[in-house]
Design goal:
The protein contains 13 helices and 37 strands. It has 682 residues and is of the alpha+beta class. The chain has a 17-stranded mixed β-sheet that branches.
Length: 682
């Protein structure tokens, strides 16, 4: 960036009282590229005595969220905050700070915890250092045009008569969200009230750093908590931003407030987050002995964007033939723990696919003579598997933990038997992702895995008409919403009567929505089982009645939905994102929808609808008969994380999907007679 004034005379390493004597840069050990880049940025400027600014600079090794193995010290950081804290910093006209907001607790993400701990450690360095002031930088910053000149003017304006800095905290990079925003100008602004985001670049005096340490424990994202200290710290922002975060260095942080704001109805638009389209090296072949981390490797490859076939006793014949011949057009680009891949076939595959890469999870498992440049040893002694794997594949270091999954072994492929009474099915438009196979192969029916015959004790949860739904340990009545829902769920809209339950939809104004709806959810997440309910959906266009299983982080979902504009059809859907609990993979908002023609109007009478979810397949049933089924990779993997049961009635934002709402048909209801959840302990 062009900057004619390169002498930043505010800086000096000689200890003058009117100078800024130290720069701390918070940088992850695994990001030396950022450290080099920020050093180059600082070296564009020289201090008052002619030295480059890197002479004053010290690197702080940032706490890395990926390697945190224990909870933070509660005397230093409490890893939660409330919606009221968020609204104190950034008020929203749709929400108010009340008892509900104060009770709405938000858990910090691992990334937010790591960032907070890194800043707190830097404050300690300021207190124990020799300099009275220090500039604290995150490693993705760039100085704006006129930085040296404008910093000099800001610094001069904030000196006391002796030339010492007359402040505790000075923001040089910030986003102003206060209700009394001032126009950018030359003079620094004294901040007495919250309303400043970002902690990418700020000056802290030794006295200010000590005040912050005395106020610990912090809570919530560190830029939020700093706002709540403005009453005890003399805080300023520069008249305009003097430092900015780089736009070519996207943040990999995960922000805990976003899903919270979605649930309370503030965020009203969803943007499909699709994987990057960069070309992945491969095909990748994963080999090793049993119990050596092969299932973890398969999941890791999937998480970084590979369409990975894994843990099977053999490969589908067409796919194996194309791989052996080195042909394009295969369904998969990674294969892990496949019985068809023996030593002889591996040598042929290596010859036919000059770009093939081989990952070995057992040191002594080296089939034939493979070029060393195409082989990665990823056995259990490798401490940072993501580092080795990402360097080998030529991809960025992933922003999530390497998966640790129990090896499931080679599953047996079985012949697929046709359904006795299938109903006509029509696929709608699918999302595009590495975990959804395209529908270009008409004969592809997925992979039928032989079912596990082992059984355990069954656990059933039953509710039926005439019984109250008041078991707080089993059920919860939702009081939130989501961006695609034009209604706010209200517990008052779930009512019990002699014939069952009613889930109501009403035209009822709230601060965030013009309608209220109804939803029941389980308090327990389940891994596999049968999930059924007898109900009659609403037939009002614009509304959707749903029976579904769901989770976020990673998002996985299995749906039954009835669209009010045509209740002669049942919509089934599966969302699959790989990863273990907490992985921030939420790609796609369309999923893989399929319409099932029922042959009757579901809104005319009660029927029982069921999701039968097993490790090897998902079956959708109507009145006990399987009407549709999906197996492995038809077109997605089978969801494999615990899911929450839901039954709801809501108002879709998409008129193309569910039709235009006829408000004269409100209020309306979905009637429920029974709910049965059956799971196995095996």
């Amino acid at each position: 960036m062009l900057d004619l004034q390169r002498r930043a005379s505010v800086f000096s390493q000689r200890g003058e009282t009117d100078s800024l004597g130290r720069i701390y840069v918070i940088n992850l050990d695994r990001r030396p590229d950022r450290w080099r880049r920020v050093r180059r940025e600082l070296d564009r400027f020289r201090c008052r005595h002619g030295d480059r600014l890197t002479v004053l600079t010290r690197r702080i090794s940032a706490v890395d969220a990926r390697y945190m193995t224990s909870a933070s010290d509660p005397a230093v950081l409490r890893p939660a905050y409330t919606l009221a804290d968020q609204l104190t910093v950034e008020p929203n006209p749709l929400l108010k700070i009340d008892d509900t907001a104060r009770a709405h607790e938000i858990a910090m993400t691992r990334e937010e915890i790591a960032v907070a701990l890194s800043h707190i450690e830097t404050w300690r360095r300021v207190v124990t250092g020799d300099d009275t002031t220090a500039l604290i930088l995150e490693d993705d910053v760039v100085m704006t045009s006129g930085f040296a000149r404008r910093l000099k003017a800001t610094w001069t304006a904030l000196q006391d008569p002796s030339g010492s800095p007359d402040f505790d905290l000075l923001y040089l990079a910030y986003k102003d969200v206060s209700t009394e925003t001032t126009r950018p100008g030359a003079d620094p602004v004294h901040r007495r009230e919250p309303g400043v985001w970002e902690a990418a670049a700020y000056v802290l005096t030794k006295a200010g750093a000590q005040k912050l340490l005395d106020r610990l424990p912090a809570f919530g994202p560190i830029d939020l908590w700093l706002n709540l200290q403005f009453t005890t710290l003399k805080t300023f922002t520069a008249g305009r931003r003097l430092i900015e975060q780089r736009i070519d260095e996207p943040s990999i942080n995960s922000y805990s407030v976003l899903p919270a704001l979605s649930r309370v109805g503030v965020i009203t638009k969803e943007k499909a987050l699709l994987p990057s389209s960069h070309r992945l090296r491969g095909p990748v072949i994963g080999l090793g002995a049993a119990h050596s981390g092969l299932t973890s490797l398969a999941r890791a490859l999937s998480m970084v964007g590979y369409t990975c076939l894994s843990d099977l006793d053999r490969m589908p014949a067409d796919e194996l033939g194309m791989l052996q011949r080195g042909e394009r057009g295969r369904l998969f680009n990674a294969y892990v723990n496949i019985g068809s891949l023996n030593d002889k076939s591996i040598r042929g595959i290596a010859a036919a696919n000059p770009h093939a890469l081989f990952v070995l999870t057992t040191l002594d498992h080296v089939p034939g003579k493979l070029p060393a440049s195409r082989v990665l040893h990823l056995d259990r002694t490798v401490a940072d598997k993501w580092n080795s794997l990402s360097e080998f594949l030529g991809i960025d270091y992933p922003p999530f933990l390497y998966p640790e999954a129990e090896d499931i072994g080679k599953r047996s492929i079985a012949s697929r038997l046709p359904l006795d009474k299938p109903l006509p099915a029509t696929d709608l438009k699918f999302d595009t992702s590495p975990w959804i196979l395209p529908r270009r192969l008409l004969n592809w029916q997925g992979i039928q895995i032989q079912s596990d015959q082992s059984s355990g004790s069954a656990t059933s949860i039953k509710w039926s008409a005439g019984k109250p739904l008041d078991d707080d340990e089993t059920w919860k009545l939702r009081d939130d919403t989501f961006p695609s829902n034009l209604a706010l769920f209200s517990p008052r809209n779930v009512t019990a009567h002699i014939d069952g339950l009613a889930l109501a939809m009403r035209r009822e104004s709230t601060p965030v929505r013009e309608f209220t709806a109804a939803a029941i959810a389980s308090r327990t997440n389940y891994l596999y089982g049968s999930f059924a309910a007898e109900f009659r959906p609403s037939s009002v266009p614009g509304l959707i009645t749903g029976l579904f299983l769901h989770r976020n982080g990673p998002r996985q979902e299995i749906d039954i939905e009835f669209l009010g504009n045509d209740t002669t059809k049942m919509l089934v859907n599966v969302f699959y994102n790989p990863g273990h609990d907490g992985t921030k993979l939420e790609y796609g908002y369309r999923g893989t929808p399929t319409e099932i023609a029922l042959g009757f109007d579901a809104a005319a009478d009660f029927h029982t609808y069921e999701i039968d979810w097993r490790p090897n397949r998902i079956a959708w049933k109507v009145d006990g008969e399987t009407v549709y089924e999906r197996t492995l990779w038809n077109p997605t993997p089978i969801p494999d994380q615990p899911l929450e049961f839901n039954l709801n009635l809501w108002h879709s934002r998409s008129t193309e999907f569910a039709g235009h709402l006829d408000t004269y048909s409100l209020p309306t209801r979905t009637e429920v007679r029974s709910i049965v959840i059956t799971t196995s302990s095996s």
